[in-house]
Every structure is written in C-alpha cells, then in structure tokens.
Amino acid sequence: MTEILILYYSLHGSTANLAAQAARGVNAVPGASARVRTVPAVSANTQAVDAQVPDRGPPYATQADLADCDGLLLGSPTRFGNMAAALKYFLDGSAGAWAAGHLEGKPAGVFTSTNSLHGGQETTLLSMALPLLHHGMLLVGVPYSEPALNATRSGGTPYGASHVASEQAATVLTDDEAAIAQTLGRRVADIAVRLGRSANR
Considering the entire predicted model, what is its pTM? Predict the structure, then answer.
C-alpha cells in the first residue's frame, strides 16, 4: 500500500478540516492510504509541557513518519504570510531525514487557512514548499482542470488547497475548498502510486 503522510498544525480547526478532505482524496486512489498526523504547539516556556499523546485528534508526528511515507501533504494556518511556528519547529528537526534522503523523489503538496482572502495564503504555501524542495521532493499543485479552482470565491489556489475563515469559528469549508483539497490529495497519491509502480518494474 502506498502511504501518504498528511502532516499539519491546526489551532481552531480549519486546517484540520482541509487535512480531512485531502485524506478523502488520498483514500479515493486505489492502492493509496492516508496517514494523518499533527504536531504539538510550541511555547516560549523552555520546559516540555505537552503530553506525548494529544487529548484529541490524530497522533503527533515523529521523524519516523517522514522516513516511512511515500508522499507528503503539509498543512498550516498562516502566520503573517508564513507557516506556523509549530510546523516550522517540526520541520527544523528533520535534518536526519534530509541527510538520509528519506523524502527525495517523493511527491508533496501543501495547504493552508487564513482569516482573509488576501491574508497570505500563497506566501504561506510557498513557505511550506521551501523545506520540501530542500528535501528533494516533487511539488504537486492543483491544475485549472479542477473546475472548483475557477469557481471558488473563497480559498483555493494552484499552489495548493486553502480555506478562508473570516472568523475563528468559521472552520466549515465551502464545497469548492473541499473539492480542491480532495483533488490535491488525489494528485499526490496518484503520482506516488505511479512512481512506486515504476520503481518496481
């Protein structure tokens, strides 16, 4: 089974909802399976305070998840046009995976959530793409053959899936946002499955 790691940080639930839709897309591809993981929040407190297992939601990611996956979908809310510190902290600890080449040649996609339509969606998506390029991953976007990309009046970009949450409680995705996230998940999974078949020939 081709396994796609869906790794994200979500504070209010919007990014988690995008992750769930991306997972639906992954699981719709024959031979592919989604592994959903999150990361703990970071704090200025220098002493570890979070439990090893979250109270709710998916388990916390480990560096072993990066080594085991066949593809990656990475998600974060935007923080001043950049990924959130919690996700950046996890990625900053991935030097071992980088040195071992665990992610080289594997497909990857990105997704985000912002509070406004022009709140830095594309720059946040690109900020997540940069470490993936350093890992040698193959970036996958959303082509305009996806009808929702032309129809959306909220989130969704060719760089990756996104959601506009006008307020903290507005975590419900529009139909177009959900469709774009599913398409991104399907594309990453489909490419990973095809690459796996090619490698086994």
Answer: 0.94
d(CA 145, CA 4): 23
Q: Count the neighbouring beta carbons within 10 Å of the beta carbon of residue 109.
A: 34
The DSSP result for 64-131, as a single string, is HHHHH-SEEEEEEEEETTEE-HHHHHHHHT-HHHHHHTTTTT-EEEEEEEESSTTSSHHHHHHHHHHH
Cα separations in angstroms, 91 against 87, 96, 117: 6, 11, 26
Mean pLDDT over residues 158-175, rounded?
A: 91
Give one DSSP letter per residue of 41-82, joined into a string.
PP-S-SS--S-SS-SSSSPBP-HHHHHH-SEEEEEEEEETTE
CB 11 within 8 A of CB 169: no
- Encode pLDDT of 41-72 as tens digits: 887 765 566 666 777 789 999 999 999 999 99
Which domains does the chain show, CATH number per domain?
2-199 (3.40.50.360)
Cα–Cα distance for residue pair 139/51, rounded to 1 Å: 33
Which backbone phi and psi does 106 adopt, to 5 degrees? -100, 145
